Amino acid sequence: MGAKFTIVLDTDDPQGLRDALEVATILNRNHRTLSADSPGKAKIGKIALIKMVRDVAKLVESGKMDSSLRDSKGFVDEKWASLVSRN
């Protein structure tokens, strides 16, 4: 079982507020308690990335996609939700 903390915030102590935020941020990062701490970042493993690159290559080779920014963005947009939800 984890430790329990009570943080008292004194609005007259700006440094204390910064320190409390730093402690809360470190605890959040270490325990992954916020699902929305970085909504714009996705995590992907090495093998999963290799598979995605291979999928893109197959689509380009078959002529269903080209290497344009528009097609690349479309491919990433299709995969983005599943990548972000893995966090």
Describe the overall structure:
By secondary structure, this protein is mainly alpha-helical. The protein contains three helices and no strands. 59% of the residues lie in helices and 0% in strands. The protein is elongated. The two termini are 23 Å apart.
Task: Give a summary of the structure in a few sentences.
With 87 residues, the protein is mainly alpha-helical. The protein has helices at residues 14-31, 46-61, 69-85. The chain has three helices and no strands.
Tags for this model:
87 residues; mainly alpha; single chain
SSE ordering: HHH
Low-pLDDT segments: none
Q: On the 0-100 scale, what is the average pLDDT? A: 82
Q: Structural class of the secondary elements?
A: mainly alpha
Q: Tally the beta strands.
A: 0
Instruction: Give the quaternary arrangement of the chains.
Output: single chain
Q: What kind of sheet is the major sheet?
A: none
Radius of gyration: 21 Å
The percent of residues in helical segments reads: 55-70%
Q: Report the principal-axis shape.
A: elongated
Distance between the termini: 23 Å
The percentage of residues in β strands lies in: under 5%
Helical run tally = 3
